[in-house]
């Protein structure tokens, strides 16, 4: 995960992903975008609705984005 700097270069994979997703869901719930009564599948669907598809030479992937845009300062063109 180069785009997040040196801290995430040492702390990546599912360990980093779980913290990012938990924070994203917490923010969504606190802003009322995810109802208090929502279950796991509802939260997952909300997360997927907040993703941006990024196509690379290696394939495509989904990336969480609050604004619908992504910015990678160290990669030109994205």
Q: What does this 3D model show about the protein?
A:
- By secondary structure, this protein is α+β, with helices and mostly antiparallel strands.
- It is built from three helices and two strands.
- The chain is globular.
- The two termini are 14 Å apart.
- The mean pLDDT is 81.
Question: Can you give the mean pLDDT?
Answer: 81
Give the overall shape: globular
Number of helices: 3
Structural class: alpha+beta
Give a count of the beta strands, DSSP E runs of length 2 or more: 2
Order of helices and strands: HHHEE
- Spans of 5+ residues with little confidence (pLDDT < 50)? none
Largest sheet: 2 strands, antiparallel
Oligomer: single chain
What count of structural domains? 1
What percentage of amino acids are in beta strands?
Answer: 15-25%
* End-to-end distance: 14 Å
| Radius of gyration, CA atoms, in whole angstroms | 14 Å
Task: List the strand order in the largest sheet.
Answer: 1-2
Helix content: 40-55%
Briefly summarize what is shown.
Helix content is 42%, strand content 15%. With 78 residues, the protein is an alpha+beta fold. Strands 1-2 form a two-stranded antiparallel sheet.
């Amino acid at each position: 995960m180069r785009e997040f700097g040196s801290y995430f270069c040492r702390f990546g994979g599912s360990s980093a992903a779980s913290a990012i997703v938990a924070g994203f869901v917490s923010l969504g719930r606190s802003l009322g975008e995810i109802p208090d009564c929502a279950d796991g599948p509802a939260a997952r669907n909300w997360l997927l609705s907040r993703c941006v598809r990024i196509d690379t030479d290696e394939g495509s992937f989904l990336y969480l984005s609050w604004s619908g845009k992504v910015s990678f300062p160290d990669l030109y063109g994205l």
